[in-house]
Every structure is written in structure tokens, then in C-alpha cells.
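User: Structure with alpha-D-glucopyranose, C-alpha cells only please.
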Amino acid sequence: MAWKLLKLALCLCWLLAETQADSAKDKKAKEVDDNWWRHEVFYQIYPRSFKDSNGDGIGDLKGITSKLPYFVETGITAIWLSPIYSSPMVDFGYDISDYRDIYPDYGTLDDFDELIATANQLGIKVILDFVPNHSSDKHEWFKKSAARVSGYEDFYVWEDGTEENGERKPPNNWVSVFSGSAWQWHEERKQFYLRQFTKGQPDLNYRNPAVLQAMDAVLTYWLKRGVSGFRIDAVNYVFEDKQLRDEPLSGATSDPNSVDYLNHIYTRNQEENYGLIQHWRKLLDDYSEKYGGPARIMMTEGYAELPQVMEFYEDENGVQGANFPFNFDFITELNSESTAQDFVFTIQRWLIYMPPGHSANWVMGNHDNPRVASRYGAKSVDAMNMLLMTLPGIGITYNGEELGMEDYRDISFEDTVDQPACEAGKDNYKWISRDPERTPMQWSDEKNAGFSTADSTWLPVHPNYQELNLANQQLAPSSHYKVYQSLIKLRSSKVLKDGTYTAQALNRRVFALKRELRGQPSLLTVINVSNRTQQVDVSDFIDLPNRLTLLVVGVNSQYRVGERLKPDEIRLTPYEGLVIQLKPSK
Ligand code: GLC
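Assistant:
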């Protein structure tokens, strides 16, 4: 009997211990790393152009997985992928026909799971593009909506328009971003549907709660497959004026088909967009809390005025929205003509407007805009990466920018595939086309730059690949890639993570930025944005007597890493940048 009691007591103890261990494990598993993204470099992959694994001339998921070790070597720990979902590819994946499946030429859901599993093993987080504003017209939802299938009638924005002399006219003057009326006549339904991009991208109707519900389920679906968050596409286009009022003329052009013809006060930046993002933030936060691990985050794409962009961080009541809205200032506000003052002013402006407690971010390039080497000039590549990496907060790199890849602007009209460029016609396509910045990644000097073994690739490879490629840059004693790599390494320093930021134009051609943190050596980045050699004196900017040691220099620098500099004699060749360590001299 005593033995039985003892056994029971032992059993109970064991059970109790197990339950405690379980709940400790649970608790541990549910801990959320809230801050992992605050100083991260996010690397954007354009999947079609990154790496082709099966020789069809189109990049794919297996290709990306095969290149994950490249990120480890580079020091990248988070990637975001432009859309990989089923799509007729009218807008190369930004027209989604099934939000829960993979575009067959990119692979399968199994390939995706493998990508995530390998990335996890290598310590790389994966962010997916999420396109809420519109689906493809080949999506089941649209087909059902067009056929007025019950429950889907109002999934999209349908309107009768008016009739004039037997001809149907759109309900108002709204124009598409890609030119022409934003209203598309649908013969089957005998109504217009709204499409702010191509006619293959009908706008979803978020005033219908069923749409929101369906999209929430899509987000959860990918979260369950292990993604760490989303880049939300074209978020400032989601809601439009309920009354469908005409937009006023902007006066910028007399072409009524041009997107610049109107002042978009009723189709962009409507108040309700913020509510939608706050709703999704809560969904992500709830998910992170429930399952633990890295905070699942959201970065939003919206080209807008600064106060409108800032509202995505949080609203005036402090309700949280995106973890960060993309800062496109290096693309939209600055260029090769900008002065040192322009740079300091533009950087400062973001920091001034950003609500307290948030993280800044700096987008250097993307698949919609010319590359850094083509916007700022090939000589600026290293300096711009120095800037990106030493500013406070998050850096965003578009694939190929670490090599200084250039736009291939000379793609013929016959080879052009970007829809708005095709629509613009042979005489106007060249400067509208986004193909030049989307050409295949230049891995090596092998066939098709090592991107694909196919006889032809979906876009031509830039002919400069024989010299400009990763393999060459890995072998060279100094290269853009090596500069990039050393900058990422430097980012793990405390001063770049947590240090304060001060910047100053030393003259109209050179500016300096300083990062400081008590007990740590300070960092100074000095950049010449002009085509003239400059000699500058930073003594006043750095106050204390300091020992200046070079940490990072560009490819063509006369200086060497480790070299000492005199504060009053810093010579910068055209477009040169330097990253310097400051230590108080005794
Ligand atoms: C975003 C994408 C762009 C796409 C558009 C429509 O701006 O970055 O590539 O064409 O949305 O989805």
C-alpha cells in the first residue's frame, strides 16, 4: 500500500514537473523578438531575374534557394521577394490569379517550403510581396464577380457609367497609372470595372467585408508557411472616393490619357487606407504573439507626400500601422544633380517627420526605377552604399546593386515586355520601360551571366556582364561587392545600431554624417556628390581631437583601409565616399 502511494506521489510529481516544463517551453516559444528588423538590411529579389535553375530562361524558386548561401557570404539576413504567385504575368506577378499558389514557371508550393526551410537553417528571414489593391482579371473572384455569382457581385468596383449617343462613357475622369481611363468596359457584365493599373488588374472593393476577410485569410496562409512578414504593394491606391468625384486637372500636361493630367485627390491617399494597414498590423501582431518567434512585420509601398507617408507608421492617436513605410527619397527627391545640402536636408526631413520610437529606412533602388549606377552615375555606387549602410535604421538593397549593376536602356522595342512601355509604342517606350532595371542578375562571365543555361532569357542580359559580374568582383582585390560586404559587417557595430546621427554639408559638394555612442568609437561618413576633386576639413564637425582611421574606401580610392587621415586634409575624388573611425586621441 505504502509503495503504491509512493508510486502515485512520484507519478504526480513527474506530471507536475512535466507540465511546468511544458508551460516554460510554451512561454519560451511564445516570446516575440520585437526588434529584429529595426537595423536590418532587406535585400529585394526580383524572382524572374535572379537565378534560373531549370534552363527555361526565367528565374525560379529553386534558383533562389540555390543562392541562399550567397546571402550568408554577403551578410544579408532578410530577403523580400517580388510576387511569386500564380499570375498571367501581364504586370510580371503584380497581377495575381491565385493568392495561394506559386506561378508554375517559378516552381511549386513544395519548392517554396524548401526555400523557407533552407533560409531558416541559414538564419535568413523571408518577406513576401502582398498585392492587395488589385487581382488579375483571371482570378476566380473576378470571373465570378463578372458573372454576378452570388457572394462575389461586389468583390470589385463596378459602375454603370453613362450613355451618350448610344455610347457608354466611364463614370468619371479617373486615369490609370499606366495611361488611359481607369475604367474598363466589361462586355459580359455590361458595366465598367475600376483598374488603376493595367486592364488585367481590376481593383478589389475593400468596402465589401468579404474581400477583407478573404485577404486576411491569404496573409494567415503565408504566415503559416513561415514567412516573417509582407511588403504591401501600392497601398495608397486601395480606397477611392465613394462619390466617384472627378479629379481636378493638375495643369502639368494637356494629355488627358496621362497619369499626370489629374491631381489624384480622390483615388490616392484616402483616409481609409490607414485603417486597413492598422487592421493588418494587428493581424500580424496577434499572430506573432500567438506563435512566438520574430515579430511578423509589414513594410508598405506608397509614393506620396511625406506627411501622408508618415501616417502609415502610426496615426495621430498612436494606433500602429506599418512597421515602416518605404522611404523613397533617394529615388524621388535626390539625383546626380543634388548638392550636399540637398542630401543633408532630405535625410533630415525624414528623421524630423518620423514619429518618435520608430525606425527610419532608406530604399536605394527597386524594380520600378532606374538603378543607382544609372541614376547617380557608376562612380557613385560605393558612396551611395556607404550612405545607405551608415544611416540610422533599415537599409533596402535591390538585387544587383551590391555589384553596381547598370540599367540596360538599349533593349529593343521587340524585346521589351514591360506592359506600360509596350503600350507607349515604339517611339516612347524607352524611358518609360522598367525592363532596363529588371535584366538578369550578373553572377559570372559564363553564358547569360551565369543566370541561365537557356538560349534566350526572358529579358536580355546586360552586355556589360563580361566585366561586371559577381565572380569577377569576388576575385578582384577591391570591388563594389567587397565594399558592400565590408559595410554590412560594419553594421553589427554598436555605434551603427544605436548611435546618434548628425549630418552637415561641409560645402555644397561634400557632406559628412557622424554616428556617436558613449563608450564606442564614432563613425564618420564623408561623401563628395560632385564631379570635382574636393579637399575638406572636418575638424569643426568632429570637435574633439580625434584619430581618424579609414574603415571603408571605394573601388577607385587613392586611400587604403587602415590608413590614418588628418582631419583638415581629406581629399575626395569625384563622387568618392569614405567611412572613417574616430577615436579620441590621448
Ligand atoms: C507597385 C509595383 C509595380 C507594379 C504596381 C502595380 O508599384 O512595385 O511593379 O506595377 O505596384 O501592382
